[in-house]
Write a structure and sequence with these properties.
The protein has six helices and five strands, in the order αββααβαβααβ. By secondary structure, the chain is an alpha/beta fold. It starts with 5 loop residues before the first helix and ends in a 10-residue tail after the last strand.
Length: 158
């Protein structure tokens, strides 16, 4: 019997975590790892103590602000990184597994905290219907490894 790879395990966990999101528009999950150990997890949604979008605005989600962005959302990778740093975890040279490639703002954070590699499932540019993967381009430009996840044959990711 073939054992699942850590890439499969961590991406499947990110996919499951995405289901915890209160976002009506897009659910995203993230797993932050180091040396094959999980150091933090996250999913997109509002800051603790604010509104859960799916409860307050179940049909539309939160209102968009200037630039068309949700005004409550914290991205999954931001949640995972902030939790790790708030709990004094060393994220330098960590690997981030995420169900949606990072936006440019998140890419800047990923680079700034020293994460060495991002493994993503789906394209942010395709989701936003834009032509360029700004976040991935930024990470690549500044030496952060970037890899699109492809499940090992026999192990499927949802």
């Amino acid at each position: 019997m073939q054992k699942p790879s850590f890439n499969d395990i961590f991406m499947l966990l990110a996919i499951e975590l995405a289901q915890r999101s209160h976002c009506v528009k897009k659910q995203v999950g993230a797993v932050l790892t180091k040396d094959t150990r999980i150091i933090s997890i996250g999913y997109n949604g509002p800051p603790a103590g604010t509104y859960n979008c799916d409860e307050i605005w179940p049909k539309t989600g939160c209102a968009k602000r200037i630039g068309g962005r949700c005004w409550l959302a914290i991205h999954a990778e931001q949640n995972a990184i902030m939790y790790a740093l708030n709990n004094h975890a060393n994220v330098k040279n960590a690997i981030l597994y995420i169900t949606l490639s990072p936006c440019l703002s998140c890419a800047r954070i990923i680079f700034s905290v020293g994460i060495q590699k991002v493994i993503y499932k789906d394209s942010y540019a395709a989701y936003k219907n834009i032509d360029v993967e700004e976040g991935l381009d930024f990470l690549h430009e500044f030496g952060v490894g970037v890899e699109q996840y492809h499940p090992v044959k026999g192990h499927c990711a949802k």
